[in-house]
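ARCHIVE CARD
Drawer: 12
Card no.: 0347
Subject: one protein chain, sequence and derived structure
Cross-reference: see card 0346
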Amino acid sequence: MAKLKTGRHTSALKEVRKTKKRTKRNMLTKSKIRTAVKRVENSVKKGDLKASKEYLNIVFSEWDKASKKNIVHYKASSNQKARLSKLVSKMK
């Protein structure tokens, strides 16, 4: 595509579109993680060990996917996974 009459380059416009798409995807992924973490914490408060372990697997999966796609830092995901693991293991 050629340069627009307003002086903006089409590559910059494309970058804006890409950024919006990526931001939406990142926010969705982070939202899934937050929801899953809340489920684990709530099941721990209730004392339901089976549900806690089930939700913990889901959280681990979500954290791994997010760190693989560089949505969150890999060390941040491992810290959070360790924190939740400790929380669930204390229930026994």
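Annotation on reverse: The longest helix spans residues 10-46. Residues 33-92 form one domain.
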